[in-house]
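C-alpha cells please, single chain.
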Amino acid sequence: MRIPPFAFRLLYHLRRAYWRIVKPTIYGVKALIIHPVDADRVLLVRHSYGDQSLWRLPGGGYRPARETPQQAARRECIEELGVQLDSSALVLEERVTTNGGKRGYLTVVRLHATSTELNPNGEISQARWVAVDLTDLPNASAVSTGVHSALERHRS
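Here you go.
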C-alpha cells in the first residue's frame, strides 16, 4: 500500500512536536548514492514533507540494536526509492546533531547503485541523478549542507 505524501507531512509535524517534548536520542543515516555508470553523478531527493524545496541525501532512522548504519542506509534507500544497490557500503561521516529538540547520531554512508531506475514512494516528491559539482541543478535550487559535506568527504 502506497502512503500518500500528506501523511508524511502530518507525521513530520507530529514527530517534531514529540521531539520538543521528550527530547529523545535518535539514530539516523543518510546515503550518498553513486550512479552505476558515471561516478561523477549522485542521487539527490526532495522530500514530500519539511522544506520541500531543499535537495537532500536520502535516508532515515534506525535502531542500532537491530541493524548497522550501513544496513539501515541500504534498507531506507530501497524502501524510499526502489533503487538497486550493490553490497559495498562505506561510512563517510559520523556526527552528533541537536536540532529539532532531539539528540541525534547521524551516519553518512556511500552506496553504489546498480541501476538508474527509481521507483520513489510517497515520502519522496522528486529524485534526480546530478553531477557531483551540482551544476545541472536549476540555479535557484537549494541544497542541504549535508549534501555538500558528503560530497567533500567523497572526493577526499
